[in-house]
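Reply to dn_fold:

You asked what the input looked like. This is it:
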Amino acid sequence: MATLPVYDRAGAEVGRYEIDPAEIAPAVNKQLIHDVVVMYQANRRLGTVRTKGRSDVSGSTKKMYRQKGTGNARAGSRRSGVRRGGGHIHNLLPRDYSYSLPRKAVQLATRMALASRLADNEVTLLNELTASEPKTSEMAKMLRALNLDGQAVLVAVPSYDVNVYKSLRNIPNVSVLPVAELNALCVLRPRRVVMTTAALDAFRAKAAASAGKRKAAASAG
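and this is what came back:
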């Protein structure tokens, strides 16, 4: 059982929050997390590189000179990859690097990632995070009060709030996501995760619902 301090936007401790990381993920499988993170990184690759092969460059296909009797090594087309101006021998072509893993495995990796950050005391809890209007200076002041100024931070909120999003998006190395859009890569990439208590409650509810479905499926089987 872990007890986390809860802060307000001024950086003052206003309460405590008890949570057992095992509620979110009973165990942390590093290999599964690694596989899912690699999948997300592969899916972000553009794969648009392209080089010309010998069929793509201009030039005659005529044999450069007769094969025997010249004293030179045999030679074919000017477009051969061994000659200047020829095509690449193993030319690169556009390709799609994306692939997918089972949905349940991806969801479990997300829960494991957050559970590991909770266990390592790398999550900062806020009592609430709202904004009546977009104001980046107020959010920057909040991060300074939490001693997170200049660090890579993920801010997780219970649902999409346009004012909070617009207030945080201009701060370097700070990203904001609703709980429903969290994944293993975005949870593990920053140095610190900032969550509201409502966001953590929502994540715990999702984890409990998933655990209930697993138990029901196991008992039915």
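The longest strand covers residues 13-19.
Hope that clears it up.
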